[in-house]
Amino acid sequence: MNYQGSCHCGAISFEVTGTIDGALDCNCSMCVRKGALLWFVPRDALRLDAAPDAIGTYTFNRHVIKHNFCKTCGIHAYGEGTAPDGTAMAAINLRCLEGIDLTGIPVQHYDGRAA
């Protein structure tokens, strides 16, 4: 299924293809502050529509995840990283997708503080 998403101001918009079968709620210092519910897809399933200078990136700790955000409104719409098998992945903030009911999506809690 195709989903449309964006940051708050629309400077970053995107389309992502896949099946939402669950979300991840991480309690690391970054995720707990931004309040994202994450859906992981292969990076090639995400098609961005944003000027390169509209996107800011923040990394911390081991610097393996790119926490991307809109430089205008500050919303973290997606992140980028690599799966353990080397596959390029995108972490979509489900709260930035249009027309989905988050109450029906199972949420797995991940202890990112301990990782």
How is the main sheet built?
Answer: 5 strands, antiparallel
Weakly predicted, low-confidence segments: none
- Tell me the strand percentage band: 35-45%
Given this structure, which CATH class is correct? Mainly Beta
| Large-scale geometry | globular
Discrete helix count: 1
> Which CATH-level-2 architecture?
Beta Complex
Rg calculated over all Cα atoms = 13 Å
The strand count comes to 10
Keywords: Metal-binding, Zinc
Family: Belongs to the Gfa family.
InterPro entries: CENP-V-like, CENP-V/GFA, Mss4-like_sf
Domain CENP-V/GFA: 3-111
Question: Could you describe the 3D structure shown?
Answer:
Belongs to the Gfa family. GO terms for molecular function: carbon-sulfur lyase activity; metal ion binding. Pfam families: GFA. InterPro entries: CENP-V-like, CENP-V/GFA, Mss4-like_sf. The model has no long low-confidence stretch (mean pLDDT 94). A hairpin with a 7-residue loop joins strand 7 and strand 8 (78-82). This protein starts with a strand and ends in a 5-residue tail after the last strand. With 115 residues, it is mainly beta. 5% of the residues lie in helices and 41% in strands. The chain has one domain: Metal Binding Protein, Guanine Nucleotide Exchange Factor, Chain A, CATH 2.170.150. The chain is built from one helix and ten strands, in the order βββαβββββββ. It has a five-stranded antiparallel beta sheet with strand order 4-9-8-7-6, with no helix packed on it. A three-stranded antiparallel beta sheet has the order 1-2-5, with no helix packed on it.
